[in-house]
Amino acid sequence: MLGSLTILLICQLVGELAVRLTGLPVPGPVLGMVILFAGLLARGHVPHPLQDAAAGLLRHLSLLFVPAGVGVMVHAGRLEAEALPIVIALFGSTLFGIAVTAKVMSLMLRRPAQDDGEGAP
Q1: Tens digit of pLDDT for each residue in 31-74?
Q2: Global pTM?
Q3: Confidence bin at 116 (pLDDT 50/70/90)
Q4: Which position among 32, 44, 87, 98 has the lowest Cβ density within 10 Å, counted as fewest Cβ atoms?
Q5: Distance CA 96, CA 120 (A)
Q6: For the chain, domain boundaries
């Protein structure tokens, strides 16, 4: 468990360092996840201890939202002052997401089924 958590934290650290050194416009932990994903692809499988550590973290995922909730409470005044633009952005992005999803689904349903060489003659 400790070794697996160390691997996860090292990937995050490498991501943070890469972002700070290069100025990439992505969060360091996201780049760390990409690095971890590339490493797992190169390895070909997920080691069992790493699976156990990730499952343990996912079981207690709700605890990771506590700092974000505290941040919202700290900035409650600012959120209240800028409520209208935030609501408009949330509503607009939700509608945009639904429209893009519907369009992609529509395009995918129009595609003819590809013959995979198995099943019916």
Answers
A1: 999 999 999 999 999 999 999 998 988 898 888 888 888 888 89
A2: 0.55
A3: low
A4: 44
A5: 40
A6: 1-45, 65-110
- Rounded CA separation 6/30 (Å): 17
Residue for token pair 């198995």:
118
The pLDDT value given to residue 69: 86
Contact 7, 33 (CB under 8 A): no
Q: Of the candidates 20, 48, 51, 16, which has an alpha carbon nearest to the alpha carbon of residue 32?
A: 16
Q: Are 53 and 8 in contact (CB under 8 A)?
A: yes
Residue that the structure tokens 């490493």 belong to: 39
Please report, for residues 40, 46, 60, 63, the alpha-carbon distance to residue 68 in angstroms, rounded to integers and kept in the order given: 29, 29, 15, 10
The CA-atom distances, in angstroms, between 93 and each of 54, 79, 96, 102, 106 are 31, 18, 5, 14, 20
